[in-house]
Amino acid sequence: MNWWKRIFNANRREQELDAELRFHFDSQVEEKILRGMSREEALRSARIEFGGVSQIKEDCRESRRTMWLSSLGRDLRYALRSLLKSPILTGVVVVSLALGIGANTAVFSVMNAVLFKLLPVYEPERLLLLTWSAKGIPENFVNSLAGEMGESSSLDTYTALRSHNTVLEETMAFSSNIDPANVGVNGHASSASIQAVSANYFSGLGVQPSRGRAFSSNDDLPSAPPVAVISHKFWQQTCNGDPAILGKTLSVNGTAVTVVGVSPPEFFGLASGHSPDLFVPLRLYMAMYGARDNYPNAKVWWLTVVGRLKEGISEERAQADLAVLYQRALHVAGSPAASDPSTPRLKLLPASRGLNNLRSEYSTSLFLLMSMAGLVLLIACANVAGLLLARTSARQKEFAIRMSLGAARGRLIRQLLTESVLLGLFGGLAGLLVAKFATSTLIALLDNGRGTLALSVHLDARMLGFAAALSILCGVGFGLAPAIRTTAVDAGPLLKQHTGGVEKSGPRFLAGKLLVSGQVALCIVLLISAGLLLRTLNHLQTTELGFDQTNLLTFAVQPGLNGYKDVKLANYYQQLQQRIEALTGVQSVAVAECGPVGECHDTMGARTVDDPNGEKRYSVSRFIIGPKYFETLGVPVVLGRAIDVMDTKDAPLTIAVNEKLARQIFGGEDPLGRRLKFSGSIYRIVGVVKDLRYANVREDMPPTVYFSNQQRTSEGMTALVRLTGNPKPTVEAIQRLTLDLDKDVPMMNVRMEKEVIDQSFYLERTFATLSGVFGLLALILACIGLYGTIGYGVARRTNEIGIRMALGAGRPKILGMILRETFAVVLAGLAVGLPLMWLSVGLLKSQLYGISPHDPLTLLACTLTIVLITMMAGWIPARRASSIEPMEALRSE
Amino acid sequence: MTSIQKFDLPQGTLDLLILRVVALGPVHGYAIAQRIQQMSKEALQVQQGSLYPALHRLEHKKYLAAEWGATDTGREAKFYRLTAKGKTQLKSETAGWARLTEVVGMILQDPQGETS
Lengths: 893, 116
Fold this sequence. Notes:
Chain A has 893 residues and is α+β, with helices and mostly antiparallel strands.
């Protein structure tokens, strides 16, 4: 008989069992009547002999032990019914589990994508990244370094390594920096990011374009027509997924470039997180950017080299072989002394997970988030455990009754198991939904609307499974333990036990309280973290920046990429400024190399001139600005004048400095007219301006020098426009005007300064928001746990309370008694949580600004909040306890 | 499980007795209980609580097959009969039982074992 039949036959079998036993019973009665008993007597005696019919039936079912599935169905039905009977408890458990599971899965999935995931390339474990290390900066070998220290090489080194090595199957290279580019698609210019890659990049990695072809060595020949492979995202978003994109021409920095391929959607380049929109061959890239950066020069290191290890060659062998080649290449490139201690030494690193810049950027944050999510999971587990503990204990009587009615102990335990697993399942399902939602939210939060965080994140099944298993285990463990104990004892005494009298506060009760205390302890940790992070954010947002941020529009233009140079470039900026100034709704305009509060932050050496104590060197921040810069920003000029139109290329070299620099270099003396030397040229100070916080709000204002953009040119500039009215029409007018000026030079990063500043706090805000959410979650969960435990205690002690009242205890006294109990639980939690926080707060330190990790105000406020809110949660059952009617309570069972 | 008034039946013995009774021909549960009682000269009284689970167990193991039929008095009852598998089982269990009693008897009758 197959399973299906078994279930369908279950009903018939029950009826048959009934009939069979009925027949037996009747036969017994008949026989007794035949022996001369009266009918009543016979019935009575037969019933006594027969014993519990249900028990016999259950034994019969058990003896078949086949009805596993049908009894599972019954268990499930019953479990569902019993869960629905207490919807609040079920809801709370499911929501707790969902949040715990969801949060952990989401954070872990993102973390996994950023930190641990292998590249979506062919045999990533055979990829090696070429890095070097040196004592100090190897000034004899390199003038200009791109990317992280130790990551880049020169074109010559790359070529030498590629052509002479015998250990790598393929030696690939790509530009360490991803550059901005002005890209025109169908005559519409927009900004995009571009990366140079060697012709063997895609084939060497084993990445097959989803459309079109990869580069071939022909694409890198001097005579080759310009071609590009575009990213999947760029194709979808900027080219609107044009199905006929292959063969189309893009205008890249003014050069016509043919699209030959689209990279697959899961490939984001080797540096996970920041992916280029366009891949172009090295030669084309050098033609576009080489004039600026002098890429063919052996002292300009701009390429990251990655190799694919030949099969059967060990990493040690490759390291040894390549190290020799590397040294030779360096010396061919014209190093003076072989014994130079700063000579770079080659080191191969595994590149199977991509390069590490994103990892270092986010790893602290993600680990911190993971810890927070872990705490929430712990609290959720404790909550589920506590609630189920209370629930199972409360159902002891039900179990006793069912056992005395003939339910086998195993069946009862199975029933409970079914309920717990069902709860876990619901929790897990809901958790999946939460995780799905939370993952995209988390990525958006981390990316903060920049749209540059390109990750392929899949919900991590392992984490989901782990979190779900942990929660279910919690539920099963805590739901089952009391049941096993209860069902182990004889049902009789339990049934006879009158709930009256003073209940012993057994260990079971203590366990519930301990769980709640634990929750409070974890809760205070999360709350204080949230408090500290929120105050950090607040500090950052209210930090005096030194300039007026309201109604300030910023955007960037990069005419230099399209071939503008010298006078032409200066004219472009002048034109732009004049035309914008003429618009209505514009108060003033200025251009500068960087907008205030941005990513660019250049430091250079300044030397004093005609100092009687000899030449001194200082490290200063430098900015290239145009006329009306200080006026537009609203930065007061303290001494002298601002950089102006008169500071042209042919005029005497002039600079403005900030007060900090004036103080640091010239002390109390008048800085006006004094001179400073920067890389050979001498500049005269014509003005001193108020300090303003620039590149990074967190950092102190560094000594700063402002150059005139006519005397030091910059290929790209950020325009700062002070608006007077509604920004929208003005922005549109500026957009038209910019394209009018040159249709191939688009506006980039058009934003209001407030947004820019806001975005620069994105990590802080993300943290503050998330930890706030986690803290709140923890608080709610802890309150529910407390309410449940205390409430359950009160319900069990109704009788005791009644007796106390009958003996003369007043209502306030009862209220006080319960509240004291609540307070003890909370206090125990705080006693553990506060020292825990005190010790672990160091983890947070790097995320804080302007606040001590042991900030007393935050500690106090959070502690008070927790005490207040938890006491409120405890007050409800306390009220209920104190409003018990003594007579009713004594009568109650 | 197997509790019998007057004295305890060793584990599994009830199954053997049931198989033996059913081997005589199709019979319903009540009759099995009575037959055992009679055959044991009232020494064994099988409780319903042991009988029916045992019957269902044996049926599940396919030693017994059951079908509904009319009794002498015309009532519907579930009649059990021995299957081929049950017959083999009865044979081997009977042999096993005989061997066991023989061995146990041998030990119990050994004069050295008696305390003087």
